[in-house]
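Students often ask why we bother predicting the structure of a whole assembly rather than each chain alone. The short answer is interfaces. A chain on its own may look different once its partners are present, and contacts between molecules only exist in the joint model. In this exercise we take two input lines together and write out one structure for the complete complex. Read the inputs first and try to guess which parts will touch.
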Amino acid sequence: MTAGYLLRSLLLLILALFSANASNWLYLAKLSSVGSISDEKTCEKLRGLIQRQVQICKRNLEVMDAVRRGAQIAIDECQYQFRNRRWNCSTLETVPVFGKVVTQGTREAAFVYAISAASVAFAVTRACSSGELDKCGCDRNVHGFSPEGFQWSGCSDNIAYGVAFSQSFVDVRERGKGQSSNRALMNLHNNEAGRKAILNNMRVECKCHGVSGSCELKTCWKAMPPFRKVGNVIKEKFDGATEVEQRKIGTTKVLVPRNAQFKPHTDEDLVYLEPSPDFCDFDPRTPGMLGTAGRHCNKTSKAIDGCELMCCGRGFHTEEVEVVDRCSCKFHWCCYVKCKQCRKMVEMHTCR
Amino acid sequence: MAGAIIENMSTKKLVIVGVILLLFQVFSFMVGGLIAPSPTTAVPYIATKCVDVVHHNQKNNKWFSPWGPNQCNKIRDFEEATVKRIEANNIVFAVHIPGPNKEMSAWFQFMLVILQFDIAFKMYNQIEDGAVVTIDVGLAYRDDSLSEWTQMAHSIEQRKLSCNFTTEKIIENEGRYYECDLLPFMEVGNVAHKYYLLNIRLPVNERKRVNIGIGEIKDIRLVGIHQNGGFTKVWFAMKTFLTPSILIIMVWYWRRITLMTRPPVLLERMIFALGISMTFINIPVEWFSVGFNWTWMLLFGDIRQGIFYAMLLSFWIIFCGEHLMDQTERNRFSVYWKQIGPIVFGSFCLFIFDMCERGVQLKNPFFSIWASEVGTELAMAFIIVAGICACLYFLFLCFMVFQVFRNISCKRSSLPAMTKARRLHYEGLIFRFKFLMLVTLACAAMTVIFFIISQVNEGHWHWGDYTVQVNSAFFTGIYGMWNLYVFALLFLYAPSHKLYGDEQSSVNANLICSGGHGANSGEDIQLTTTITHVDGPTEIYKMTGKEAQE
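Now the answer. The structure tokens for the assembled complex follow.
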């Protein structure tokens, strides 16, 4: 363990105490050692949860495994979407998992909030469909008049439950602080935008089953998009995010675009308050700001993954590396790959 | 068929009958829209991946339950399986229907399951063209949550994967999913048990190329569709109410016909047959499906509907034919073979198709005619032939309606020149035809409009606090409408008692009306002669009858 790391951790600890960061619960993803969250005591031991989240945890023990899985897929997706950017969503072993990068009201923070709110909704909905949760759909949002629920009119969509749970669990931190803070407004907006990325991309699928399979009788349902698609949608929103500022209209505070010439953002758009740093250099005072030194880059690309931009003009090393690759493989649909090993020489570029 | 009630009824009475029928119509829409829930529910399931540690034989009857007591040894994803060196043949996809804390019920009537694969794109493990998945599937049931599972069906099925990858096939896009078509998986004609369990295996055999080249499967998703219990109850209640209504009017109708001295004419018999086929649909035998384990109810329902449709289509042809007002003597079923032929043949094709699909499903619920190449072609052939028959039928029908209208306009021009008796006869015929034509068109238009609304709409409208179930309203409303249609036919086209004893043997007036040539003097001469000789006296009776009524 280097001294730098120690210092960073120390700083982080202090920061964690002072800045209440709403994405702290993502730390759940790192708690693989806890095993299953099966009793109320575990809830209190979980790091990163605020008191109200602990209460939700105690009331919804069975859902917590899904929430943890949600945190994991949020981080995975973030790292996939940002793999070619200067900030590549690298996590630390501490709270908050993304370091201080996310504690400011930047674009990156907007993305993290959106993807994590979406991931909880996604994971809980999935858990509903695989039968892991007892009270999906049928408890709330039952439409129909009879108390018999499922027998009379079926249950409502699982996604409604997933989104509702995400709203109560993820948003509770912002609601706790009151509506006044502009960060709270921004986070709430981005959380909702993340969930909208799922809701507005639900695929409607239908099956005809009338007489002789005719469409006289047709049943349609909404299928959740794969999470990669949700990630892509949120990434697109990240690229077109709107910079906003808080303004008071009447008695309520709202976020409006800083540049009045831009058209106002919709529910689905991401918003941010501060411009992002350039993420070029390692900054010991900002945990998570690792800099781009040592990152691989693409020599031919002119985009952000190109060596020019990625290395912030510092230049790059080039070395010839032998890569062992798999080739002429045989696959089964699961768990079985038999490959030959092929060696080839590849030019590798690394930022200085 | 002469002197139907509708001709002798005063306009006021006719309006009253119309308003009453309309009220019932509105009522039947409201029953579906406000009381019933949506007709069907789709429940999504994601299969749990269970590990079969020692590969069991099929005979071993070991069932893997995804949750609850005695749940199987689960893995979260296949990366975990790779680490633990678990092979594809040891993985069992388990789905418990329904979800936790829920029970299936006999009120659900049927259950169909749709299969969908989540297949991730991998540069070096893509789906081959024309890939076929071989599925080893077992279905089991139990009626309380602690007893053993009992096998209901087991089969090895093949399904063709039709997946496409919408984005570019490059290494950056690895991990995105293919978009795969829904695969028909299972259809059960009744839901007699509380809990069902599906165990799916995808056995790999490299030598026989079984399940090779199907890509990297991430998940199996199923969608279970069943009728809502609430809708079934409303539907049964409606049937139970409609059956006696139609039966009573049928008895009344037939009594009227037997009271006459002449034998019933073809059209009268046809209307009666329509009543019988309507009653056949109405009789709520489905009540038994709640108590008994009858899996053939779906097939039986299809057959009943098919008979009614065939009867309705035949009725329209014969009704037009009997109102053609040319001099040909019809009144025999065999005259209409050309028009009825396509109906019978088309229905027969659909029947064979239905037997091939739902008939075989009685034995093997996983069977689908669309799964095999030959089956698909066969099914398409049946459907295309039935479609051609339908087109042929509509051509005939349109032509006949056109002919009737041509004759009507021809008659119209010669009406003033006729004697009063003859004029009343033709006016009656024309009114009778036009009335049915109008009502039929209105019914057909309603059916089509509501069908389109229910297809386009998402299924329910919010009306303040009320939710209107459009799809349910469509089903109950249209069902009620055709019942009222048959009811109105039986009532309004029954022979009028005001004319007992003076009915003619046929309505066919020996009149030549040759299309566009218009009425010429020669025709007029013939007209006057035929009136005095053939049905003059009856018309005079009728005229006096009408005058007496007024």
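Check your guess against this: Residues 41-227 of chain B form one domain.
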